[in-house]
Every structure is written in structure tokens, then in C-alpha cells.
Amino acid sequence: MMAEVAMVPETEYVFDVHGLNLWYGSSHALKDVDMQIEKNSITAFIGPSGCGKSTFLRVLDRMNDLIDNVKITGSVLFDGRDVYVDYDPMDLRRKVGMVFQRPNPFPMSIYDNIAYGPRLHGRPPKSELDAIVEESLQRAVLWDEVKDRLNKSALSLSGGQQQRLCIARTLAINPEVVLMDEPTSALDPISTTKIEELMVELKAKYTIVIVTHNMQQASRISDNTAFFLIDSERCGYLVEYGETSGLFFNPRDKRTEDYISGKFG
Ligand SMILES: Nc1ncnc2c1ncn2[C@@H]1O[C@H](COP(=O)(O)OP(=O)(O)OP(=O)(O)O)[C@@H](O)[C@H]1O
């Protein structure tokens, strides 16, 4: 009888970035970044202020397109297709959602915040919209807190609730990836814990990429971490990228070790 061979599942990557360089005008902000981002995982970007973490995050959903004078070279593949060649930016952003540092609910009801994206993309009937609103709020673990006040203004929610609402709003258009730029830096510790738990739950269905200044947060919740630094010409580059446990507890690069042990940055 043939021995059974245990199959190790092949890692699937949603993003595959090669030789990425980015300039703001004449200022070289990111140099030669290569990175593959694993599907259904949390990837954290860490590094000192100005090293290009947010810039790199915005490369992934083409948000830098909205800034004048940005030049990008290299390739950024999302699901095997080039983000800058094969995608319309609006189609891309439907698949790659973004949550920002400061909760930014629209000045309208809780319901309308969530319904906004689906209405924009296809005008579903009311019953379908109701189901999307409930499901998105459930996924963002906010439903129980707001189900009796869906017609109240989103601005009446607490900061932590507003951020979960913004996450629910992003989930309502059914993205594959959720990018989060310091999503808890404006929140208190209890709200931060809720968002962290939520991210860990969400990775079963989505791929999460997060910029964070909080190294404990990166080590608590992320599967992979990318550490960026700035060189003598003020240009950001990737120092080390890999499994979070390895990067924090057994870094390959002395600069990573110095940064995570608080020797600089
Ligand atoms: N819209 C812009 N126009 C010109 N330069 C910019 C712009 N946005 C960022 N930069 C510059 O690019 C560099 C990287 O900035 P970025 O915000 O990506 O860094 P970061 O690592 O996310 O910083 P922080 O942790 O402080 O948010 C910085 O020198 C910054 O001043």
C-alpha cells in the first residue's frame, strides 16, 4: 500500500509587488520594495515616522493617484493582474477597501452610511439592502449596539463605534482586502481591543493590511510584519519582511532588532 503523503497547502498571495519605487515630485519616497501579501492573513507595516508605510499602503489601492506629481515604477499585481495597468481605480477600490486613522462616518444615519456603497454600485432593492446593512454590522461586531437606532446619526456614536461603523461600511461592498491606516491610534484601549479582536475574526474572510505605530499591536495580531526604514537621502525602504513571530523574536537584521528593542525610532 502506498504511504499517504501529507499535503502542505500552498500559500496564496493577493498582492505581489516587485521593484516598487515612488516619488512625490523629485522626492524619492520608496525604493525597490518587493513584497508578497498572503491571503487571509494580517500583514502589519511598522517603522519610524516618514518611512513610507502609508505611502506603500496607498500604492495597493491606487490612492496615491489622487495626489499630484506622484510617479510610480515597478509592478503591483493584485490577484495576478497589474493594479496600474489592468484595473480601473474604482473597480480596484471596490475589491480593496480602506479604513483610515480617524473614524470618518458620513454625516447621515447609521443605516445610510452602510447602504452608501451598495447604493452607489447597484441600487439593490430595500430587502437586499437591509440584509447587507445587518450582515455588515454583524461582521463588524456593532449590530447589537446599534440595531435599535439605525436611523440615528452616525455622528452620535462613540469613537470606537464610529471606527467599527467605518469598517462595516467598507465590508458592505464585499471587498477582498481591507487596508487599515493606524485604525486604532485615535481610540481608547477598550475600543482598540475590540478592533484588534475584530481584525483577527475578519481575516477568515478577508485579507487585512495594517499600518501601525504600536509594535505590541503588530506582534499581537499580525501574521506577517514588514519593517521599513529611511535612508540617508530620506527615502523609505524595506529592511525585513516575514513571519511576525520571527521578526519580533528572532530578527534577521540588526536594524530590526535595534528598532523593536527601542534603540532608535
Ligand atoms: N502627499 C504627499 N506629498 C508629498 N510628500 C508626501 C506626501 N505624503 C507623504 N509624503 C512624504 O513621503 C514620506 C513618507 O510619508 P508616509 O506618510 O508614507 O510615511 P509613514 O511611514 O506612513 O509616516 P507616519 O508614520 O508619520 O504616518 C514622508 O517624507 C512624507 O513627508
From TrEMBL:
EC number: 3.6.3.27
InterPro entries for the chain: AAA+_ATPase, ABC_transporter-like_ATP-bd, ABC_transporter-like_CS, P-loop_NTPase, PstB-like
Pfam family of the protein (one): ABC_tran
Keyword Zinc: no
Keyword Zinc (UniProt): no
Any coiled-coil regions, as ranges: none
GO cellular component: membrane
Domain of life: Bacteria
Protein known as: Phosphate ABC transporter ATP-binding protein, PhoT family
Species, as recorded: Parasphaerochaeta coccoides (strain ATCC BAA-1237 / DSM 17374 / SPN1)
